[in-house]
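User: Quick sanity check before I run a bigger batch. Here is a single chain. Can you write out its predicted 3D structure?
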Amino acid sequence: MKTNEKSRVLGEVNPITLEVVRNALISIAEQMSITMLKTSYSTVIREILDYSTAIFDRKGRIIAQASRIPVHLNSMSPALEAILAEYFPIESWSPNDVIMMNDPYKGGQHLPDIMTFTPVFVDDAILGIVGALGHQLDIGGRSAGSYGGDVTEIYQEGLRIPPVKLFSAGIPNEAVFEIFKANIREPVKTMGDINAQLAALEIGKEAFRKLAGKYGGDTIEACMEALLAYSERRMRAKILEIPDGVYDFEDWIDDDGIEDRPIRIKVSVTVQGSGISVDFTGTEKQSTGPVNAPIGVTKSATYYSLITIVDPTIPPNYGCYLPINIVAPKGSVVNPNPPAPVVGRMAVGHRIVDVLMGAMSKAVPNSVTAAYYGMSNVYAIGGMGEEGTPWVYFDIEVGGWGARPDKDGLDCYSAGFHNLANTPVEMVEIGYPFRFSAYELIADSGGAGRFRGGLGVRREFALIGAKANLTTQGERFKFAPYGLFGGKPGRKGRFLVRRGSEIVDLTSKTTNYVLQQGDHFIILTQGGGGYGSPLERDPQLVLEDVRQEKVTLESARNDYGVLIDPDSLALDADKTRALRETLSRCAH
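Assistant: Done. Predicted structure follows.
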């Protein structure tokens, strides 16, 4: 069979061709990802890796993706579908068009996340679309990094861009470029990152064309349909293995940064046959402050959680979404009405993952984890350089994963929902007026359990330049990451400022706090929850944790019932057995 013919066998796509095309499409998305990495300017993309690339069919359905950020990737299809339905029908697209948007109320995330799309023409017809999303260093608004924790309207958060043609048939829309540059604090870095996205689109488009030239457009189109159907079939088959029933759970957001009151996130999951319905009825109404999650984020968190629970080996694409029905009441924090602010939407997004894990622990306890650190701990610092030009430092710090049914949680490791990397301290010190004095795991921060929650970290640095403004978006400072089946909760997070001998305890969501020269900013991130009773943990594992300084002698004794000699760090097996019996009787 020639490769430029339709590869059909008994009415189906040839399975060998299908697998080759599937991997080729993933490879193209990865090529796009590498292009963004190598051509970007800011540490947000180059170090934190806060960006995503993907391939779509002409209907806007995601077909293949690079191994980047689920919260982005699962929302790009809804955004592209909105673009095609409300702004630019597929028939109106021309070769070398580029569509840009960041509107959270048109399928987007929050304003710093800018999406770009371009069509792939083969034989004068659109075969597919390639897309790239990048978190931009700054998009204007109330504070540096566009992360105002005290905003009450989206208008205060920065430049809101509805779907617009950045390029029309290859001709740049210079007015859009100029408006964009005039509203941001670091135009050189930000425009450099936008150009990195455009370069990624070009790489993806040409590689997609080359693939179509090899196999033929009809074959590629048939393969894309087959890939969606394959993922849907596997998803439904796995859902059938879950006991039918209704599974509820709720958890809380600390506050919205404006009103000091908790915000309930409630979910009811109904499993029936090969389908799952996820109902957020009972979740709080939309907040005054910027923790609201647009519907794109709610869908992303839901899809991510259920795919992870059902079977993470299923090829991720639009087909995985089809068995899942989502009910998200309008006007709630999981589906706000404009002009509600949304920049801190990950607070709710992460909690959606936690409540879905909690709900599904009642159905498939061996397929879930205890609660992880539960927030992209964002901090942005802005100041003025010696030449009077603004600078912006943006970073995200993560914490410990929840323990698993058969393993400890990972220490200071980005949860799959956002899948970020850390910024090396050397890179920060080269580009900004900071000096680091600590970056270390926090002992006892992981929840005790048969399997221990992952540890959070302490990250500390001093401002050595002129004064600057600090803005934070944190969570789980009041409500700790929960444990499961007798596991204890992980430690809560904190933001501190040390000025001389004085320690200032910041709220989780702080806007434009003035740092003076010499101040130390200290981030203490959350630990993950434990899984199972700590008294069931292998004493040898507790001993190893103590030797590695992940668990203190006090916690070994009080939480795990394990007695270790403080001088020799040797386990006293007989006294441990007796202590555990005593603690077990007291617990009952």
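Residues 1-11 have pLDDT under 50 and may be disordered.

User: Great, the batch can go ahead then.
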